[in-house]
Amino acid sequence: QVQLVESGGGSVQAGGSLKLSCAASGSTFSSCGMGWYRQAPGKAREFVSRISRRGTTDYADSVKGRFIISQDNDKTTLYLQMNSLKIEDTAAYYCAADLRQKCTDLFWGDYNYWGQGTQVTVSS
Predict the structure, then answer these.
(1) Rounded CA gap, 48 and 82, in Å?
(2) d(CA 117, CA 19)
């Protein structure tokens, strides 16, 4: 059974940094793309960042220049380095992955697995 497990969340002061990790287990399939989303209380889940199977990266405007997405060489672990954190970055962060035997034609993938989320709280 495929599982995505996020870690690295916590509480930090504004201006600080955190690094999130997302480990995929139970899959022998290729990673066709992975990404990070977040959801603040009372708000809809929103896109944060994504990485294609070819390594192309993409960021929401709100985090561009502050967050860096990366993955390990075997594409089983996804990371999100978050710098210069702001109070408005407070949210539950979710990892998503497209793991399948044969990737579709979608450049960023078609996420079929989600993690349970890790909380990030930024205070003043």
Answers:
(1) 11
(2) 14
Q: Which residue has the tokens 């201006």?
A: 15
pLDDT band at residue 27 under the 50/70/90 scheme: confident
Q: Return the DSSP state at 84.
A: S
Task: Give the Cα-Cα-Cα angle 36, 112, 25 (nearest 5 degrees).
Answer: 75
The answer on pLDDT for 28 being more than 80 is no
Cα 96 from Cα 76, distance rounded (Å): 12
Strand ranges (E), 1-124: 3-7, 10-13, 18-25, 30-39, 46-52, 57-59, 67-71, 77-82, 91-100, 113-114, 118-123
Q: pLDDT above 70 covers what percent of the chain? A: 100
Look-up of token digits 């997405």: 69
